[in-house]
């Protein structure tokens, strides 16, 4: 057991502690690392940083669209698969493919499908819809990444929903049927209320995951966050400040602020779920 | 719920089949492109079945990119080491927290719970500087050692062992087995489902990890496949035939593992998350 705690100490607890210290310094990581104390200036700087504003706006937009969409999609797929339908396992395995595929490969496949004479545009043209320069047009580049992530993550949440649905007592539905409830009534009055804690959990998992978007933006834009900052996310910005501009203290401060946002969301959810259980 | 009305089932099947196609098509399209010559891909009339079937793309990536095989080896080596390490260390720590009295036990449990809530980005920069100080940048140990324990799975294993029947261990103690013997000979073999779920998640995570290798590796010889693929893409951005072939080689091991252990994977998802 001792080795586990040593490794945890060196690579988990020490870094977390150091991160809180670094955020107050200017760190110059080349050659002999040098530190200069800067007080709260790293944190204050974030509030007047145009790129922080853009990254936050992109990330917030991304979270606001992706989380509800993937949650609804996951719920719908789970509801359908939970009916007495044949071939459930087959569908479940197919749906799950993108979830086990690496983000690097998914991004490459999507970039190829989204390129100007790729599959997506050919399909859009075929059904008479307008086509886009998905990779180069700042107004749609982030949308392409959104589409991909909804598609890749929804099945994971679908499986969590499916598992939770197994715990709903069959007798509730039988009683409802005797009372003459329709399928729709049962969904609204039994299934959804029962799934509420899981839904909160899935939404928080979704928010935590989407706030940390990095791989797709990086591969998509070769690390630049382009075109025209449209795919710049908070984590990509932290990466740029730390490892391209080599301003590690400022990047550490930004990382702490991101952590704070994520933790507040998590705590709000904890609070909510407790409320649920008391009722 | 039951789908009793005569029109419900066809509609549900249609939705499921459409969604299955939507999921499968990008993979099928990429797989078929990996067997097509570039001319056919860019011609704009290519279909799902290659008109001119060729395996040349697969042969060419090893020629065009002499490091490709090295990247494949690095990925396998790192992912296997990280997985084995996690299985041993997380289980032992989880078992200790569940069963053994030792000084600071409460504190460690509290720390693990607290660490669970800290997102990875916070540790990026300090970890980089620690590895730099140790001289571990660009090395296997730099990639492996920091990810060899995982707070989430320590916690999961603790929950698992707490619900584990004590009688077996007591019997083992009567037979004169020590902690370590009991752990390896009695407890671990019975923890197989939990270990399998853990192994799959850790392996997939390590296999697909992009950010950590990106930060600590600068020498192309040490690249893992995701990084290699990314630089490969940079050089051959219009050679979609090569990129797709390389992507398929990268995806295959993960898919095979998933296909073999599908049952444990689903179990693991519900294990780690479901009962939130």
UniProtKB/TrEMBL annotation, chain B:
InterPro entries xref list: MetI-like, MetI-like_sf
Pfam families reported for this sequence: BPD_transp_1
Keywords linked to the UniProt accession: Cell membrane, Membrane, Transmembrane, Transmembrane helix, Transport
Topology in membrane: Multi-pass membrane protein
GO biological process: transmembrane transport
Transmembrane segments: 7-29, 71-95, 107-131, 137-156, 237-261
Domain of life assignment: Bacteria
Domain ABC transmembrane type-1 span(s) in chain numbering: 72-261
Gene Ontology terms: cellular component: plasma membrane
Major site of localization recorded for this protein: membrane
Name assigned to this protein: ABC transporter permease
UniProt subcellular location: Cell membrane
Family per record: Belongs to the binding-protein-dependent transport system permease family.
């Amino acid at each position: 057991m001792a080795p586990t705690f040593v490794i945890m100490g060196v690579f988990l607890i020490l870094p977390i502690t150091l991160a809180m210290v670094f955020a107050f310094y200017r760190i110059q990581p080349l050659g002999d690392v040098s530190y200069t104390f800067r007080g709260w200036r790293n944190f204050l700087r974030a509030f007047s940083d145009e790129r922080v504003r853009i990254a936050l706006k992109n990330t917030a937009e991304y979270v606001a669209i992706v989380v509800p969409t993937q949650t609804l999609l996951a719920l719908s797929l789970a509801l359908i698969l939970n009916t007495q339908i044949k071939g459930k396992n087959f569908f479940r395995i197919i749906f799950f493919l993108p979830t086990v595929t690496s983000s690097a490969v998914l991004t490459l496949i999507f970039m190829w499908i989204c390129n100007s004479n790729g599959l997506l545009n050919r399909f859009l043209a075929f059904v008479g819809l307008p086509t886009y320069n998905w990779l180069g047009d700042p107004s749609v580049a982030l949308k392409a990444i959104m589409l991909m992530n909804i598609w890749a993550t929804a099945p994971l949440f679908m499986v969590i929903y499916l598992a939770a649905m197994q715990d709903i007592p069959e007798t509730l539905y039988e009683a409802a049927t005797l009372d003459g409830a329709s399928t729709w009534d049962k969904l609204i009055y039994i299934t959804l209320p029962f799934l509420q804690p899981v839904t909160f959990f899935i939404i928080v998992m979704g928010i935590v995951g989407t706030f940390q978007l990095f791989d797709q933006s990086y591969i998509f834009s070769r690390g630049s966050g382009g075109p025209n900052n449209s795919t710049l996310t908070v984590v990509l910005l932290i990466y740029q400040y730390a490892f391209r501009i080599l301003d590690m203290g400022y990047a550490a401060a930004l990382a702490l602020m991101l952590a704070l946002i994520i933790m507040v969301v998590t705590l709000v959810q904890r609070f909510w779920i407790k409320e649920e259980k008391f009722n | 719920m039951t789908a009793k009305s005569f029109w419900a089932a066809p509609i549900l099947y249609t939705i499921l089949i459409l969604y299955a196609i939507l999921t499968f098509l990008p993979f099928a399209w990429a797989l078929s492109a990996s067997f097509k010559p570039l001319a056919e891909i860019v011609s704009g009339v290519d279909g799902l079945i290659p008109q001119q079937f060729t395996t040349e793309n697969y042969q060419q990536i090893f020629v065009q990119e002499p490091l490709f095989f090295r990247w494949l080896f690095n990925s396998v080596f790192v992912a296997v080491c990280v997985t084995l390490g996690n299985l041993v260390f997380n289980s032992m720590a989880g078992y200790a927290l569940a069963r053994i009295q030792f000084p600071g036990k409460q504190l460690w449990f509290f720390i693990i719970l607290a660490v669970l809530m800290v997102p990875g980005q916070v540790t990026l920069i300090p970890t980089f500087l620690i590895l730099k100080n140790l001289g571990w940048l660009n090395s296997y140990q730099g990639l492996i050692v920091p990810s060899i324990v995982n707070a989430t799975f320590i916690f999961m294993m603790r929950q698992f062992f707490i619900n584990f029947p004590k009688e077996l261990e007591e019997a083992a103690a009567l037979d004169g087995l020590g902690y370590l013997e009991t752990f390896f000979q009695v407890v671990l073999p019975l923890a197989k489902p939990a270990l399998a779920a853990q192994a799959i998640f850790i392996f997939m995570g390590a296999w697909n990890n992009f950010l950590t290798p990106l930060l600590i590796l600068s020498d192309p010889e040490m690249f893992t496949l995701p990084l290699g693929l990314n630089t490969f893409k940079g050089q051959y951005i219009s050679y979609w035939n090569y990129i797709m072939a390389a992507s398929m080689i990268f995806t295959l091991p993960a898919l095979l593992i998933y296909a073999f252990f599908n049952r444990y994977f689903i179990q693991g998802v519900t294990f780690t998350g479901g009962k939130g």
